[in-house]
Specification:
Subcellular location: Nucleus, Nuclear pore complex; Nucleus membrane
Number of helices: 16
Structural class: alpha+beta
Protein name: Nuclear pore complex protein
Function: Functions as a component of the nuclear pore complex (NPC).
Strand content: 5-15%
CATH topology of one domain: Alpha-Beta Plaits
Distance between the termini: 72 Å
Oligomer: single chain
Radius of gyration: 24 Å
GO molecular function: structural constituent of nuclear pore
Number of strands: 7
Largest sheet: 5 strands, antiparallel
Subunit structure: Part of the nuclear pore complex (NPC).
Length: 470
Amino acid sequence: NVGDLILQIYIMYLFSQQHEELVGIYASHLARHRCIDLFVHMMELRLNASVHVKYKLFLSAVEYLPFSPGDESRGSFQEIIERVLSRSREIKPGKYDSSADVAEQHRLQSLDKAMVVQWLCFTPPSTVDDVETVSAWLLLRALMHSNILFREFALISMWRVPAMPIGAHKLLSFLAEPLKQPADNMLSFKDHDVSDYLKEFEDWSEYYSCDATYRNWLQIELENAEVSPGELSVEEKQKAIAAAKETLSSSLLLLLRKENPWLIPIEDQIYDTREPIFLELHAVAILCLPSGECMSPDATLCATLMSALYSSVTEEDVSNRQLTVHVKVSRKNNVYVEVTLRCLAVEGDGLGPPEQSDGGILANVMAAGFKGELPRFQAGVTMEISRLDAWYSDAEGSLEDPATYIVRGLCRRCCLPELILRCMQVSVSLVELGEIPDKHDELVELVGSPETGFFHLFSQQQLQEFLLFE
């Protein structure tokens, strides 16, 4: 359509002249697919623009386009946002500096992923039809997407370095203001478990707060390590002790939650079906050497990794659960590997309430790769996961509903042992400074207690490290 093309050129001209507030008027007359594509393109170009500029573009979309899909001839605001959110999690093509530190590159990339949530945190004008529902949908979507990102960001920020996980903290800052609004309007979305989303968000908020206190302590510890113990001033020692105690205190508050355990939903997601149903876990990851550099994957390495992932569970499990593993080099960026795990859902892992809050067999397999403890694979090589999704699927392999319990369980397998090991590290530091930690014995009991279920979240190497600290 020539008219559409002319209109599109004019819209991009307005956009290039910083007249974002005008683009919606004209874009609303474009064919549906052109309108969506154009707005997605503009939003991606303005991802790191000022709040004022982004808000102009947001207003232009929310005021002049239908909010929900319905009219086949017109692009809607929801469709644009969903596309923007989806694309923001995709692996970007282009060069990856294989000699640079993987953790730092992932840390910087997390900021771009987080920035997209700002589109959902703007306040729509009161002139928009059914503004309360629109506001509630935006906040609900922001919560859902933030929780997805929090899980991924936690897995890329396990390294014991002072640098903060900036993506996660950016999300927390974006949602601080919107979450002050009453949640009543969100509760009107009956097909969503709003209280579950809110609980998970609060869980991540507490986790990243603990993480920040640890990194603050680590920064002080590293600075003090550059000075000989005899030359440390009393003030520097006291500062280190205070930071260590704060780290232990905040972490233990999270670990000791009995009524409301971390990252366990208030009500379990129950999936019942008479048909055979399968579970799938899709991950995009970089294989990382102990030095922090990444490996360049090829077909041979993928085959070796695939075999190692199979070997992380028993042959009986592979057979009974019909486990399949596929690993290939990503077409979008050949430094990444794409891993797909698939197995039969069974009672306690996919069907009915989860037997344990550890994500089941697929999380177990992925955790072995993530922690660098795969049998028959290069020692110490870890899978640095950049994107993670879990699904229920049918016998033909068509994806159905998200299997969120798997990803949450994987996060529990990875985050909680690391949190405990960090506490042990801090406790050792306190002892070296002449302070006896109050809660050290409690920490040891926590790991051994069958009530917490923490023990089986630890891998063999993590248990060895725990005993070494002990």
